[in-house]
Each structure stands twice: as C-alpha cells, then as structure tokens.
Amino acid sequence: MMQTQDSESYEKKMSTNAAKKPEYLISKGIVNLLENRYGLALTQEVKEKISSSETEFTERLGEELSDIFDYKVIAAEKIEESLEACINSTNQEKLPIIGLDDVYFKKIEFDNTISITRLVNDINNFSNKTLGPRKGCKDLAEQMEELEEDYCGKEIALADIGVFEGETLFSEKNGLLNLLKEKGITVKRFYTAILNKSTIKKFEKAGVEIISGQEYDFENGDWLEVRDLLGLDGRKINTDKYLINNGTNLFARYIQDPQTLKSGASINDGVTASIVLDLCNMYQKKILREIRKDGYQVVEGFVNSDPRLYTLEFKKSRKMQT
C-alpha cells in the first residue's frame, strides 16, 4: 500500500510521542540545605566531599531510572543562576521581590521573605495538608500582618525555586496569593527556576505573570530534590500535637520503605524502588558520616516510636564548643 507524505508524517509523529519518556528531574543542593536551613558551619573539605557524594548518587540513580524516565539533573548553582537571570532581565520597574525559599538564593537581595510550606496534619493521610511556617518561624498570620504594613496597596513579585502543582500558591482556602490579596497586596509576577508546564494556565487564570528559567512536563514523571531522597528532608509534619524541641525537624521520609518511595518518588516498579531505596540509604549514611567527621552529632529519632514520624537534628560536639 502506498503511503502519502501526510500519513508518513503522522505515523512518525505518533511513533515519536509513543517513545517519549516522562521527564524526571533531580535537583541538587545538599550543602545549601545543611548550611542555610540546619545552620551547619562545614569545612571546605567536607563540603567538597558531600558535593562529590551527591554527584555520585545522582549518577548512580540515573543508571536505575533512565530506562523508565527522561532523567535530568540540575545543580544548585544552575538553579540560582537561572533565577537571578530571570530577575535581572525583566524587573525594569523594580517591583519589590519577596523570596519564598530558605535553602537557595542567598546571593540575591530580596526585599523581604515569607516562610511558608505545606504541612501534613495526619500521618495516615498525606492529602490532609495545611499551609504553615517552616520550623522556628513566625506563624503565617503574623507574617501577613507585617507584609501588610509594607506592601498594602502595592504590586509585588514572588520568587521561589520551583512550581510543581502550585498548591502553596493557588489553594482556595489559604493559598499564598489569596492571603496576600486579603492584605491588599497584589502579586503581579512570579519568578521561578523550575516550572511544571501544567501550572501555566493557573498563573494565567490568577492574572500573574510567570517568568521561569526552565520549563518541564512532569506528567507521569516527577521532580525530586536530593535532600528528600537521602532522608535529610521530606514531607513536613504539623507539630501542633507533638512535643518536640524547637531545633528538631519533623518529617515523613520518602525513604521509609519501598512503598513510601514508590508513592513519594513516582517509582512504580517494585524492583527498581527496592534498588533505589538501598542506594538512598547508602548515600545518606555516607553524607551523615562526613557531617560527624566535621564535629557534629547527628541526632535521629522517632516520635512516639512511630517510624513514620522522623526527627533530625544536628548538634555541635563538645570538642567544637570548647
């Protein structure tokens, strides 16, 4: 049977689409996390060793996931450079820019910051979430009142590392855009280094200009940060009903078991999930070992002996304090 040029083009297009793998992005930044959120003063030698282990981990992870996903890795430096370039190229009117991230962008001078994150209310139901401040920060109501004093009746821009689903921004009950609107503050523009293409329509509907460094299509794929995969961060837990120290971080780890890794990291193949889990645990141990060698105690625990309620804290050893 003779094929027309149009039918050949159509079949080629369909074949290409069928072979296209879902995008899977891994963002690096372990040293940024340890220094900027946990407040560790790491030596240059240890920072280099941790960064080397992080790179090695992402390479080995890619060996396991590249058959399934269009696997990509973005470095912390690239994330920061990307956002800075977005701001420098578009903010001619000098809108006040409020930063939302506490790990990256320390070289960018934001006009203000907001500490906001998603908190899981029920460890048995990860979809039961609310928005609240990060550990040790003022509650959202107080933060909004302070912003109202400075920006009521004004237009501002927000900046963050990335947008996956936009839940923090667009939630009808207490999304950040609505919280600011209630205080008379208009969000004109949003800067981000990483953008999931599916959220563009949400920005358009909200009337917010979106400026991104890189767009991705995470449908059937995912975006994970190395810190989540290595158990140094995870799903934040609302601490209202738990008695824990102020300096202690409470979260549900993605690497608790194969099932949590499958659900949290979109790795549906059981064998692959088990292999990746072993890889995650091994590199977590390697990085924690380097932190200990640099003079810190690593204090891990579980609230109420529940392995899903993981606590992590770093303390200076006595040698460092003397």
Structural account:
This protein is an alpha/beta fold. It folds into two domains: about 20-70 and about 220-320, no CATH class; about 75-215, Rossmann fold. Helices cover about 40% and strands about 25% of the residues. The protein has twelve helices and 14 strands. It has helices spanning about 5-20, 30-35, 45-65, 75-90, 140-150, 165-170, 175-180, 200-205, 225-230, 260-265, 270-295, 320, and strands at about 25, 70-75, 95-100, 110-115, 115-120, 125-130, 155-165, 185-195, 210-215, 220-225, 235, 250, 295-300, 310-315. The strands form four sheets. It has a five-stranded parallel β-sheet. A four-stranded antiparallel β-sheet has the order 11-12-14-13. α3 packs antiparallel against α11 (about 270-295) and α10 crosses α11. The radius of gyration is 21 Å and the shape is globular. The termini are far apart. The model is unreliable at about 1-5 and about 10-15 (pLDDT under 50).
Question: Which helices and strands occur, and which strands form pairs?
Answer:
Blueprint: H1 5-19, E1 23-27, H2 30-36, H3 44-65, E2 70-74, H4 76-90, E3 97-99, E4 112-113, E5 117-122, E6 125-132, H5 140-151, E7 155-163, H6 167-170, H7 176-182, E8 186-196, H8 200-206, E9 209-216, E10 222-225, H9 226-229, E11 235-236, E12 249-252, H10 258-265, H11 270-293, E13 296-302, E14 310-316, H12 318-321
Parallel strand pairs: 1-2, 1-10, 3-4, 3-7, 7-8, 8-9
Antiparallel strand pairs: 5-6, 11-12, 12-14, 13-14
Helix pairs in contact: 3-11, 10-11
